[in-house]
């Protein structure tokens, strides 16, 4: 097959706007560029405003992970102001963060990811008929159950935050709410409904406890074949169809992973400090370089802008040192000069490396043998990453693997809330610098704030999508999705569903557009109607 | 049966996420039981690339009927009115919207960004964002003050950050079952059925408001109007009538109403001392008083109640 140009604009099913240019030679992607195509300037809006503006503004950066932004915004102020956080406050923040992530698993899986497996590309596969029956958009049997059940975890969020999305109930010093017995009992009941409607009968085909016994990839394969119920569950089908459809064969990425960690332990972060954060995490932070684990240090994070549409900024600055963004003139994908600036996204790097953020990064950190007693210690994805390596399949499996564990956490944390205890300790406002981070459903999220003269001097947000869809850095090294597209076989240039599947396996918070160009000359060749 | 096209501009997807939480009807029921045909939606649409572009062109050419255009997110006009800060399907989104609004049966703006400009339009408004037919309280917006769709209505505004799923689905149902004639809109183009009463109506702390019992963060009972900036008495919305996620509301969870269904949101443009705090005059008197009250009368009444509360019982709380 000759070199081909594809032009897909847009590829939907996520939020925002992303264009991707891929060069295809003999059916394989040889080069790829990502282009974030929308700019709103939230960091600029917050400058000069009330220090608590982040609590209102940043959840509105992303309505899908707004609660995660709130977790970061309140944490950044906690460290800047030196607040006190009671066990109840830490539990209620963790419950909110976990509920948002739990919601996202069925919602993302059915509405955004699995419908692609019903693409006609896979029509010759034996499991295709079953996939179509269950996962076709709107009409699929379990699509309907899963999408409807995804509204339940955020009902728990609403009990404590008033509503989901877009609450501001986490504030420096704790939380606004002081739940009563009826809120706790109701939350337990809603959680059980989520388990009984979807998690156990539809998704797992077994009890949560049975699923959580799985420790290795071999265990996982044996679990699938253990009985009809597990084999025919949606997870059983995902594993069987995923391997049959070859999802484990493409979309590898940079092989380096970053997690900022989340869920601060109720008794270990009562005097929040940036330095004390790593040790207090339940879902641990870290950087995995494909062989070794490294402790996470936010000072090793930098942002590159050589290929981004911002001026007045040198490359590779730590967020505290970065100026507010100065937007430059942008171009359409067609007119972009990829040797220069071509995206609204910046290129974050950890210790100089591009790193993948997301559930896969999280479950790899959970397999870190150095994790403490209070941290998640789950060896499964240490084994899977060794045996299968990263791929679309590994990434999706990591995302859905979290549901049973998060379920158990929410149940436990609800039971630990002390209804006679304190929920909020009013802080003293002062100038200073702060850092807050969490794991949004789709990966590492961090906020940096500087307060001066009682107003925000600088606010910098680094979202998981920035890590994943960021363009090339100052040394022209590509970002994770740019890298993950390399080598992808485009079976049918008339329907390059593989490109969409790679992008969606990251749950990139953007809408994708794909152009393909002659690998030698860079010229656009022809356009295919898709 | 109604054909719906849903697009997003300077959006966060919050309204889409809210929409997916809908329960009566659910999104699935909206499609299977109410015959709503979603021509395309950025989160759930199956068509990609040129299929979407062709669909948009077919709508503009009159080959496909678009009964409802739903728009989420601000209209991004920057930089310098070029709209290139928000490109969609190879051209500025604002250019698509201008043309699509001319052939739409009804245009429904969902969420604060699409209705009033929302947070992206807070000064210095780096993306030159505006709402579809308003910018903040000023009528005009992107489509101009005189715009009416083919169905004879101006843009129907369903504000909120986000809009409640029922507000969205019920307007879509009203159109699809032929009840659009019953939809009345107020001066800000909001359907009166959801935006006549104040958030305070149905608030479980309304007795504490009347008795001037002050609340605060992390406590049970007490009213959030006096210190932490609750805008429930000045905000028209049915949050305490049609609950959120079927469970609660901001004020029921001890969260001050942020006034997000009113065109000033975020109020006072986030200036120092305005976020989650009650702005005061002379350090004591709330700058804003409940809608329809004279300031002096309100301050006097509040003073009396503070000194001589008529009902101390409201201060008791249970866990």
UniProtKB/TrEMBL annotation, chain A:
GO terms for molecular function: ferredoxin hydrogenase activity; nickel cation binding. Gene3D superfamilies: Cytochrome-c3 Hydrogenase, chain B. Its cofactor is Ni(2+); Fe cation. It comes from the Bacteria. It is found in: Cell envelope. Ni(2+) binds at residues 65, 509. Its main location: other. One of its GO terms (cellular component) is cell envelope. Fe cation binds at residues 65, 512. Keywords: Iron, Magnesium, Metal-binding, Nickel, Oxidoreductase. Mg(2+) binds at residues 43, 62, 461, 515. InterPro entries: Ni-dep_hyd_lsu (IPR001501), Ni-dep_hyd_lsu_Ni_BS (IPR018194), NiFe-Hase_large (IPR029014), NiFe/NiFeSe_hydrgnase_LSU (IPR050867). PANTHER family: HYDROGENASE EXPRESSION_FORMATION PROTEIN HUPK (PTHR42958:SF4), HYDROGENASE-2 LARGE CHAIN (PTHR42958). Belongs to the [NiFe]/[NiFeSe] hydrogenase large subunit family. This is Nickel-dependent hydrogenase large subunit. It comes from Costertonia aggregata.
UniProtKB/TrEMBL annotation, chain B:
It comes from Costertonia aggregata. One of its GO terms (cellular component) is membrane. One of its GO terms (molecular function) is 4 iron, 4 sulfur cluster binding. Residues 196-268 form the Cytochrome-c3 hydrogenase C-terminal domain. It is found in: Cell envelope. Residues 12-175 form the NADH:ubiquinone oxidoreductase-like 20kDa subunit domain. Its cofactor is [4Fe-4S] cluster. Heterodimer of a large and a small subunit. Keywords: 3Fe-4S, 4Fe-4S, Iron, Iron-sulfur, Metal-binding, Oxidoreductase, Signal. One of its GO terms (biological process) is anaerobic respiration. InterPro entries: Cytochrome-c3_hydrogenase_C, NADH_UbQ_OxRdtase-like_20kDa, NiFe-Hase_small_C_sf, NiFe_Hase_small_N_sf, NiFe_hydrogenase_ssu. It holds the Pfam family NiFe_hyd_SSU_C. [4Fe-4S] cluster 1 binds at residues 12, 113, 161. [3Fe-4S] cluster binds at residues 239, 257, 260. Belongs to the [NiFe]/[NiFeSe] hydrogenase small subunit family. [4Fe-4S] cluster 2 binds at residues 203, 223, 230. This is Hydrogenase.
């Amino acid at each position: 097959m000759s070199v081909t140009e594809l032009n897909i604009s847009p590829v939907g099913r996520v939020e925002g706007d992303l264009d991707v240019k891929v060069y295809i030679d003999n059916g394989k992607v040889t080069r790829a560029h990502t282009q974030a195509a929308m700019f709103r300037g939230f960091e600029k809006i917050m400058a000069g405003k009330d220090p608590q503006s982040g609590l209102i503004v940043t959840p509105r950066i992303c309505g899908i992970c707004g609660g995660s932004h709130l977790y970061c915004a309140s944490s950044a102020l906690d460290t800047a102001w030196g607040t006190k956080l009671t066990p109840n406050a830490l539990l209620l923040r963790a419950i909110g963060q976990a509920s948002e992530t739990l919601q996202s698993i069925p919602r993302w899986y059915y509405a955004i990811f699995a419908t692609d497996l019903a693409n006609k590309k896979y029509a010759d596969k034996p499991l295709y008929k079953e996939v179509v029956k269950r996962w076709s958009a709107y009409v699929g049997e379990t699509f309907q159950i899963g999408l409807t059940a995804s509204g339940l975890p955020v009902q728990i969020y609403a009990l404590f935050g008033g509503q989901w999305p877009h609450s501001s109930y986490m504030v420096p010093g704790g939380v606004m709410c002081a739940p009563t017995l009826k809120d706790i009992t109701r939350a337990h009941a809603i959680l059980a409904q989520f388990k009984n409607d979807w998690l156990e009968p539809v998704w797992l085909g077994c009890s949560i406890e049975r699923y959580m016994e799985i420790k290795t990839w071999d265990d996982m394969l044996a679990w699938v074949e253990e009985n009809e119920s597990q084999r025919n569950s949606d997870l059983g089908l995902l594993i069987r169809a995923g391997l049959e459809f070859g999802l484990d064969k493409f979309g590898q990425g940079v092989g380096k992973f970053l997690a900022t960690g989340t869920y601060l332990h109720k008794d270990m972060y009562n005097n929040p400090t940036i330095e004390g954060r790593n040790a207090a995490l339940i879902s641990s932070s870290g950087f995995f370089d494909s062989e070794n684990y490294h402790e996470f240090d936010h000072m090793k994070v930098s942002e590159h802008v050589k290929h981004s549409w911002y001026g007045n900024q040198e490359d590779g600055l730590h967020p505290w040192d970065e100026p507010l963004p100065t937007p430059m003139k942008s171009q359409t994908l067609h007119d972009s000069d990829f040797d220069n600036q071509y995206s609204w996204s910046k290129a974050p790097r950890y210790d100089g490396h591009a790193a993948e953020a997301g559930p896969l990064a999280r479950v790899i950190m959970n397999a870190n043998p150095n994790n403490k007693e209070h941290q998640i210690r789950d060896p499964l994805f240490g084994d899977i990453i060794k045996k299968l390596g990263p791929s679309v399949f590994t990434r999706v499996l990591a995302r859905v693997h979290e549901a049973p564990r998060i379920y158990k956490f929410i149940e436990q944390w609800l039971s630990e809330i002390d209804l006679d205890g304190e929920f909020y300790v009013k802080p003293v406002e002062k100038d200073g610098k702060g850092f807050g981070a969490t794991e949004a459903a789709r990966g590492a999220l961090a906020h940096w704030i500087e307060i001066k003269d009682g107003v925000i001097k600088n606010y910098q947000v680094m979202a998981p999508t920035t890590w994943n869809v960021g363009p090339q850095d100052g040394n022209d090294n590509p970002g994770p999705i740019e890298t993950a597209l390399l080598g992808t076989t485009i079976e049918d240039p008339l329907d390059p569903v593989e490109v969409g599947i790679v992008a969606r396996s990251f749950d990139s918070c953007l809408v994708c557009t794909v152009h393909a160009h002659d690998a030698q000359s860079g010229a656009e060749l022809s356009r295919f109607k898709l | 049966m109604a054909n719906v096209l849903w697009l997003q501009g300077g959006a966060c997807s919050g309204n889409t996420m809210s929409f997916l939480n809908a329960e009566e009807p659910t999104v699935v029921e909206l499609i299977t039981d109410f015959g709503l045909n979603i021509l395309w939606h950025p989160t759930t649409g199956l068509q990609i690339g040129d299929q979407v572009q062709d669909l948009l062109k077919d709508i503009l050419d009159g080959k496909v009927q678009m009964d409802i255009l739903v728009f989420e997110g601000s209209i991004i006009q920057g930089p310098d009115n070029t709209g290139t800060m928000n490109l969609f399907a190879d051209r500025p989104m604002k250019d698509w919207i201008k043309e699509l609004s001319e052939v739409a049966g009804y245009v429904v703006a969902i969420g604060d960004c699409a209705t009033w400009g929302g947070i992206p339009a807070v000064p210095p408004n780096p993306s030159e964002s505006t709402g579809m037919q308003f910018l903040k309280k000023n009528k005009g917006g992107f489509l101009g003050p005189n715009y009416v769709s083919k169905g004879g209505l101006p843009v129907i505004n369903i504000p909120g950050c986000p809009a409640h799923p029922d507000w969205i689905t019920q307007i879509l149902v009203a159109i699809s079952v032929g009840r659009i004639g019953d939809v009345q809109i107020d001066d800000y183009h909001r359907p009166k059925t959801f935006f006549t009463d104040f958030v305070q109506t149905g608030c479980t702390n309304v007795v504490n408001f009347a008795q001037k019992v002050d609340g605060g963060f992390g406590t049970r009972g007490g009213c959030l109007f006096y210190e932490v900036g609750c805008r429930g008495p000045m905000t028209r919305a049915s949050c305490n009538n049609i609950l959120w996620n079927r469970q609660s509301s901001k004020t029921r969870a001890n969260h001050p109403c942020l006034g997000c269904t009113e065109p000033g949101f975020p109020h006072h443009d986030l200036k120092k001392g305005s976020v989650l705090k009650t702005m005061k005059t002379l350090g004591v008197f709330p700058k804003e008083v409940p809608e329809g009250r004279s300031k002096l009368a309100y301050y006097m009444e509040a003073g009396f109640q503070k000194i001589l509360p008529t009902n101390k019982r409201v201060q008791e709380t249970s866990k």
